[in-house]
UniProtKB/TrEMBL annotation:
Entry keywords, A to Z: FAD, Flavoprotein, Oxidoreductase, Redox-active center
UniProt keyword Oxidoreductase present: yes
A GO MF label: oxidoreductase activity
PANTHER family: NAD(P)H SULFUR OXIDOREDUCTASE (COA-DEPENDENT), PYRIDINE NUCLEOTIDE-DISULFIDE OXIDOREDUCTASE DOMAIN-CONTAINING
Pfam families registered for this protein in UniProt: Pyr_redox_2 (PF07992), Pyr_redox_dim (PF02852), Rhodanese (PF00581)
Domain named Rhodanese: residues: 475-560
Cofactor(s) needed by this chain: FAD
Organism: Anaerobaca lacustris
Gene3D superfamilies on file: FAD/NAD(P)-binding domain (3.50.50.60), Rhodanese-like domain (3.40.250.10)
InterPro entries (UniProt xref): FAD-bd_OxRdtase, FAD/NAD-bd_sf, FAD/NAD-binding_dom, FAD/NAD-linked_Rdtase_dimer_sf, Pyr_nucl-diS_OxRdtase_dimer, Rhodanese-like_dom, Rhodanese-like_dom_sf
Entry similarity comment: Belongs to the class-III pyridine nucleotide-disulfide oxidoreductase family.
Protein name (Swiss-Prot/TrEMBL): FAD-dependent oxidoreductase
Superkingdom: Bacteria
Amino acid sequence: MNHPLRVVIVGGVAAGPKVASKVIRLCPEAEVTIVEKGKLLSYAGCGLPYYVSGVVKDQKELMCTPVGAVRDSVFFQHVKNVKVLNETEAMEVDRASRRVRVRDLLRGQESWLNYDKLVLATGAKPVVPPIPGTDLCNVFTLQGVHDAEGIRAAVAQDTARDVVIVGGGLIGVEITEALVQRGCRVTIVEMMPQILRILDPDIVRLVGQHMESHGVRVLTNTKLERIEGEESVKAVQTSGGRIAADMVVLAIGVRPNVALAEAANLEIGPTRAIKVNDRMQTSDPNIYAAGDCVECNDLMTGKPCFVPLDSTANKQGRVAAVNLCGGEDHFPGVLGSTVCKVFDFCVARTGLGESAAKDQGYDVVTAWAPAPDKAHFMPEAKLLMLKLIADRKTRKLLGVQAVGPGAGDKRIDVVAMALMAGMTVDQLANADLCYAPPFAPAMDNIITAANIVRNKIDGYMDGITPAEVHQMLEEKRDFTFLDVRSPQEYEQVRLPGSMLIPLGSLRGRLGELLKEKEVVTFCKISLRGYEAALILKAAGFNSVRVMDGGVAMWPFPKLV
């Protein structure tokens, strides 16, 4: 090669700028050009809901480095030595000649850019349903800063108070909180049976309950049919009826933006995203792709998946840059590690959920572990509810989900690393994790969850989920629903159909229970429920189960 390495990057939001920055670090003499259709560069798209809410005060904060430098075209040119063509669209890739045709959207002029290596970082685009009314004023998606500005302006001008969010995924849930914080009345309309489909239904019930406690109306199994209004939104018509609204946010999801790749005859995977190898190369070895336009390898199933996240885009961008500069790096895939804030709840997950694990043929065993996220005597301790999933036969970890005001993210991260290492519940149960009362309990939440799984696998404990107990109550099954909390706790809140025998009195009151009848024990978090079950089994009760998660994880109505 008689000239410096020429790298053209299509896309300038997440993966693209990461590729550019790493290429310049590895090959300072390289000629790097970013082609970006929009005006803004390298902004934190995942921060848009927090800009809408006002937590982030200025849009420039989404585009700044940690030291406050705005990542605009001047920054990339002068600091990174990267040429930026923003408000410029890539129209065509000529693979044979290794060049890209681009159009200046302001002037209408077209030109060709030659490349040695091309990177497609074209991202994803929001799904807009083919229904009437999506073009009305105050109908938004949340693709970029301009959408967030529009939503903020509508709220500030008091033209948006009743808001319908269409879609209950991560974007829908996060923008819901933002709008509630701005004083809006929010209804989520979700076509599927539950919001947050990345979570198991029992965890979602707890999330939904929490959202409703903040005034959010959640409608599932409800399809949007049309948006009504003349110039601006007045209402939406759904399969369940008409809902008055002066703003609609379409948060149905995103699709990978693969038009340029398809036109260039690059291979598209089964997820309809660009297929790449673990070096981030497409079917053309001189063309790389990274970010929300590519499909990933699911590390738990070995199957292709589409998981659009800024964190993944940045890692993939670095891998692509190393390889196109002649180095060697590999992106193995993803576990689907995800976290979101739902008011004061941390909601997170990694690995396989319960149903997904069963679909993969595992003999699934789960642990429900609600407990304080720090030593219980610390005033800042908060409740964290975990659901750990493992395989009974191999004792292998499969996944975990977390919900609650406690620090769930760090427990998810611990399990993510354990999954990467292929650990068993026994190995996790003895992991040497940090302990000090201000930071964690002596037996960390995730270690407790691992031990619950071990108890179940080893036959010390038989569990039953709150949903199964609720169904037994609905069917008026003949069983004893035994609450072993204190009388004071029982007076504050109790579960329907339950009877109270405090744990300290149980050995002396066994005669009040029928041995031939099934007994389901529980307490606040079911630790005392587990101890009660052991007492009953030792006394000759043959059918005893512990309700997973206790009162803390009961998502159905309680008696107060």
